[in-house]
């Protein structure tokens, strides 16, 4: 079943985009809708306020949030969790953690997002 799920993840066309004027809670909700996992966005070592947009978050943190990033963030279910988290950092300067669907535990970075959403 694992191989079949892995193949299916490559063809899952979950649409996910990040824009500077989106609120943190909207980005997290869109991620959950697309992949079934919880996305936690941090400001320093604390969870970012969900009512802030990325532009506003940039003004409240010492780490530069790259709200004018060139290129588009593309994440698929077949991508490894660690690679997706690194992509958020590289493209937007955001520290994120991908957690299980319940949002209780961080997912192993070696799993794919698809595996994490199925609880494998």
Overview of the molecule:
This protein has 120 residues and is of the alpha+beta class. It has one domain (2-118). It is built from 5 helices and 3 strands. The protein has helices at 2-11, 24-35, 54-59, 81-92, 113-118; strands at 38-43, 46-47, 95-99.
Q: Work out the helicity level.
A: 25-40%
Total number of strands: 3
Strand order of the largest sheet: 2-1-3
Which structural class best describes the helix and strand composition? alpha+beta
Biggest beta-sheet profile: 3 strands, antiparallel
Mean pLDDT: 80
What's the N-to-C terminus distance? 11 Å
Number of domains: 1
What are the secondary-structure elements, in order, as H or E? HHEEHHEH
Beta-strand residue percentage: 5-15%
- Spatial extent as radius of gyration: 14 Å
Spans of at least 5 consecutive residues with low confidence: none
Question: How would the global form be characterised?
Answer: globular
Task: Specify the number of helices.
Answer: 5
């Amino acid at each position: 079943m694992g191989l079949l799920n892995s193949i299916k993840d490559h063809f899952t066309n979950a649409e996910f985009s990040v824009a500077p004027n989106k609120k943190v809670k909207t980005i997290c909700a869109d991620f959950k809708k697309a992949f079934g996992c919880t996305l936690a966005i941090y400001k320093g070592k604390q969870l970012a306020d969900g009512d802030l947009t990325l532009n506003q978050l940039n003004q409240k943190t010492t780490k530069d949030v790259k709200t004018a990033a060139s290129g588009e963030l593309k994440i698929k279910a077949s991508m490894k969790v660690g690679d997706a988290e690194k992509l958020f950092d590289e493209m937007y300067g955001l520290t994120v953690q991908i957690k299980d669907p319940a949002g209780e535990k961080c997912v192993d970075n070696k799993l794919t997002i698809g595996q994490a959403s199925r609880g494998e």
